Amino acid sequence: MIGIDFVGFLILLIISVIVTAIIHFGLKYYIIPGWGSFLSKVIVSWIGAWLGSPVFGYWFEGLAYKQIYIIPAILGAIAANILVVDICKTLKS
């Protein structure tokens, strides 16, 4: 997972943008509304999606591109977003 190619990077970026858009705009789960908060969560979500397969496992060979497994990447992106927002809300109050 250290040396992913450009297509793998784009797959993780698409997953992170979609997950973050649903969490930020759909569920309104954020600290600060706006695009700055959204973009920072996209970065956090990308890291979570990147770590998703090694942490959650390698599921569904049919939904994979090289070492990027889609379902664990989505779960990693969701987990990273929720973790960061919860930590920020805890430290804010």
TrEMBL record:
Keywords: Membrane, Transmembrane, Transmembrane helix. The keyword Transmembrane applies. This is GlsB/YeaQ/YmgE family stress response membrane protein. It comes from the Bacteria. The chain crosses the membrane at residues 6-27, 39-60, 66-88.
